[in-house]
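Table S2 (continued). Query chain:
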Amino acid sequence: MDKASIGIFGGTGFYKFFDNMEEVVVETPYGSTSSSISIAEIDGKKVAFLPRHGKNHEYPPHKIPYRANLWAMKKLGVERIISPNACGSLQSHIKVGDFVICDQFVDRTSGRVSTFYDGPITTHIGMAEPYCPELMQIAVNNLKKLGYSHHEKGTVVVIEGPRFSTISESKWFTSMGWDVINMTQYPEVVLARELEMCFLNISVVTDYDVGVVSEGSVEPVSHEMVTKIFNENLEKLKTLIINIIKDIPDKREKCKCGETLKGARVSGENFISLF
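Corresponding output:
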């Protein structure tokens, strides 16, 4: 299909992006996607939107059909993914309401299926730089133009969920120097790169994690708080995403995300691509 070139995954509190849209259902070898996919045009570019938790937040983080979601985006023709999410701050200088453009992740999940390549051709993709440098720079440039409080890079630690961290776990994450905490970035970013799609994370800080709370006077995290703060920043996030989309060039020339599989296959020169 050639339905869209840019894909967006909506996170907690972000279930709708377009008003005038086409809705499509994409069948995948990995089952149903989190919901139907909305497609509309922004600044002459076709954009696909999918709420990763479903339209009614029916999928908790560990049950999201990540492979189906990414496969469907690829099948629609998407080359670039924008992945906003709510997150908790692990460092006191990263404030509630700040935007963080993550450049690294640490996986602390367990049991999630995190690859399309189960054989017979063994595939090892590089993950030293998981996020697209071109999209990151476009995002940072627009955050500066809009005057939003932000951090140009950061490491997100991804926990299994659906529970939040203990104080001891949270303090450990903070002591390691990691910046924010989330439940959905893994395996989403890895699966996107396996399909040679560029990937941008925009983390919206909705709370301080419990380890930071234990050292000060800020409130402990709750789902109610996460939703409240995210909703307060939703229009800012939408404005940012629209501006990013407008600045995305038609061709990918400043990154190597589209060459991820080059040299990654262990056996056999002749293989059939996923698409």
